[in-house]
């Protein structure tokens, strides 16, 4: 089966985070600074697109950026804790849609949407992820969707900012335009080696044999670069995120507002979710009822309790949430889901005092 692999990268990330909490900076060039110990010195972490129009970019010394800036350019010192907080909220949203997520940096993650729905549905999922991040957090990102990591990453740069680029056909033509520096793993040092051998674009690699690349870069890297030139990349998405939540959803046989009918499904889903969550030996505090109504609106109702440590308790909370939903809404339920989150460190079952002894 053809794989469906996506790369999500947040747009001008640190600057976007700052603009989110400082609305007065809207429509202004914004530059984020990593200050150094010496006064008035430091490096540029990133710049929003208006500041990039002034030729200010990541890695540049602060002094140079100040020379390029206009009067209205706003300089802000980086607040990494705040960016990390937003970053984890973003990837929790991705976790909700996909269980195979590999975060590769503060603002970037691959996710594998191959199963169970395949490439056709992957596009829908990417659209939903973008919407939810926008709607819940107010942030934009760009997603590349393709058949492997290399192509997903390249695709993610095609429609920045706030873009979704699907690369499934015409891969050879797509790669024709790309410079050697665009290739995964090629930095300044490797770019020099390529260029000294007359390779300026990715397609120029095809003029050489695999053995030539192995000679320049060693076996592993040489072979990878050679394969990359043909759009081949066998690297898997290696999930590296702790599960932030466990959830299951089901579509009702027909749209319904009948309490017993819906509750019956909720009990089954709660059982599945509770067992899955207990496997990871986690305690959790939040239970949610997720409803998709007949208009395809998504409604989530949640309750947080000190500890939901038995299936019975989970079902009780879900029952109350269903009552609330039916009281508040007139719409019919099409899909229903149960989710638990807000995990706590430690084992799922509390040790008794007796067990702690000895
Ligand atoms: N970063 C940094 N120093 C660098 C490069 C990046 O501190 N030399 C930080 C700030 C960025 C974040 O990492 O906001 C993500 O880096 P990206 O390369 O993804 O760049 P941006 O997200 O800022 O911009 P883009 O919209 O091009 O992705
Ligand atoms: Ca980014
Ligand atoms: Ca990035």
Structure explained in plain terms:
The chain has 358 residues and is an alpha+beta fold. It is built from 13 helices and twelve strands. The protein has a five-stranded mixed β-sheet. The chain has a four-stranded antiparallel β-sheet with strand order 9-12-10-11, with helices on both faces. It has a three-stranded mixed β-sheet with strand order 3-2-4, with helices on both faces. A hairpin with a 4-residue loop joins β10 and β11. α4 packs antiparallel against α5 and α11 crosses α12. The termini are far apart. The relative contact order is 0.10. The structure holds 2'-deoxycytidine-5'-triphosphate and calcium ion (2 copies). The site of one calcium ion has 4 residues, from loops.
């Amino acid at each position: 089966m053809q794989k469906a692999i996506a790369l999500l990268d947040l747009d001008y990330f640190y600057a976007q985070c700052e603009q989110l909490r400082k609305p007065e900076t809207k429509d202004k060039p914004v530059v984020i600074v990593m200050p150094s110990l010496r006064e008035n010195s430091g490096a540029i972490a990133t710049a929003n697109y208006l500041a990039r129009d002034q030729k200010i970019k990541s890695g540049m010394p602060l002094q140079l950026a100040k020379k390029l800036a206009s009067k209205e350019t706003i300089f802000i010192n980086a607040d990494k804790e705040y960016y990390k907080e937003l970053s984890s909220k973003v990837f929790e949203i991705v976790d909700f849609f996909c269980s195979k997520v590999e975060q590769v940096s503060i603002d970037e993650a691959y996710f594998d949407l191959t199963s169970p729905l395949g490439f056709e549905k992957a596009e829908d999922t990417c659209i939903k992820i973008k919407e939810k991040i926008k709607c819940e957090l107010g942030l934009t990102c760009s997603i590349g969707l393709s058949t492997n990591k290399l192509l997903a990453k390249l695709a993610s740069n095609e429609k920045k900012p706030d873009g979704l680029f699907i690369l499934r056909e015409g891969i050879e033509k797509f790669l024709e335009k790309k410079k050697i520096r665009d290739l995964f793993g090629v930095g300044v040092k490797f770019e020099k080696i390529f260029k000294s051998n007359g390779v300026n674009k990715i397609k120029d690699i095809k003029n050489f044999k695999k053995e030539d690349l192995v000679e320049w870069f060693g076996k592993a890297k040489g072979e990878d670069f050679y394969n990359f030139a043909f759009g081949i990349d066998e690297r898997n998405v290696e999930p590296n995120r702790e599960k932030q939540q466990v959830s299951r959803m089901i579509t009702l046989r027909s749209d319904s507002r009948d309490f017993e009918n819906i509750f019956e499904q909720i009990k089954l889903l709660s059982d599945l979710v509770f067992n899955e969550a207990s496997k990871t030996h986690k305690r959790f505090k939040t239970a949610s009822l997720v409803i998709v109504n007949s208009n395809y609106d998504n409604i989530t109702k949640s309750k947080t309790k000190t500890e939901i440590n038995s299936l019975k308790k989970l079902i009780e909370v879900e029952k109350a949430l269903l009552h609330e939903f039916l009281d508040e809404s007139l719409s019919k339920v099409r899909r229903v889901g149960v989710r638990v989150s807000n995990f706590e460190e430690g084992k799922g079952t509390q040790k008794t005092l007796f067990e702690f002894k000895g």
